[in-house]
User: What shape does this take?
Amino acid sequence: MVGVRQFDEDALIATALDVFWRKGLHDATMQDLAAATGVQRGSLYNAYGDKEAIFLRAFDQYAEQFLHAAGSALASGDPAAGLRNFFDMIIVNMTEGAPARGCLTTRTALDAAISSEDVRRRVQGVLSRLEQLIGKAIGAVPARRSVADANRLARVIVTFTRGLAVMERAGYSRKQLRESATTFIDAVIGDV
Amino acid sequence: MVGVRQFDEDALIATALDVFWRKGLHDATMQDLAAATGVQRGSLYNAYGDKEAIFLRAFDQYAEQFLHAAGSALASGDPAAGLRNFFDMIIVNMTEGAPARGCLTTRTALDAAISSEDVRRRVQGVLSRLEQLIGKAIGAVPARRSVADANRLARVIVTFTRGLAVMERAGYSRKQLRESATTFIDAVIGDV
DNA sequence: TTCATTCTTGACATCATCGTCAATGTTGAC
DNA sequence: GTCAACATTGACGATGATGTCAAGAATGAA
Assistant: This one.
């Protein structure tokens, strides 16, 4: 290989992820990415083609990390404790940073109408994988519920997490989100 | 009055609402508004100042209509039936149109980071008024729950509605949203 | 009828972003 | 050491959005 790339690709994608997380796919510009990474616009176009290609890589990295963390949290302790840990994790995830960055998946989902099929697929992929993780975790209580019930409830839980992400954007504090999550868990926990 | 305005303001705002609902505050341009209303850009600037001023008027119209519909749905029948009607109403609201327009409030909330304080206040206003409506509706069951409990649960319900709006954007069908809403209601209905 | 007031219109300057490209390095292969 | 292959750079033209403005048109008041 000659004419070797001058930058660290992993570091660049990580930096790009931070930019996208703070500004969103739509609002982040190639100039933003160039400024944050220290790599010129022309080089980015040469290396990746366009903004969306960079986003897809960054989003994939984010999704893996997020789903791994979700799986770990859900697997800690009994299903009820797992759920509590899981909600703690995602609330921290969306309220971290100053100002808080919110939830990347949710923000991206809301841009659905102006995003490509590729982007939409990634969002759906994260949500459906999350749903499966949750379904497994709450379905682990044997003989207390049908698989169909567990799956339906898992989707309700995923939906509620998306709601938390919106509430965060609307200005609700970490404490308020935690209180709602606790109330939610208590309300459905009879079924867990 | 001389040099009289050539267009019907109410009709213009209604048309603008449709544009904002389909494209979002951020994506809709003055050109979009001009094309949809048949009023030149220059006239719009002259009459309203800027895009956000038009949005605020349109959003206010939307909010009143939405909250009125929510209140009516919630007040129909006992609290449980009211909740079911309410969820039916908001799911229809966000899945109407081709393509579906989604939930304007949620979409606007996600633009929080790039919106003005005025816009953020409107979003918070809708959510908190909705929370109050729900709190009243489910708190109407006397002596079965403290007011604090009803308020917490009301916020959980509002949060869940926001989650439904995100799921709609992610591609879930009206039928799927209805199923989740039903499962959610059944899970919390022991408390209603 | 006249006129002052206001709205309307189309053009203008500005700005930010996009995607491309030719020129210019730089590096590993031979 | 030479050179082909690739990356980098800065500039370019195109596009679309913004906000402003001067000139023209329309209308109610006097």
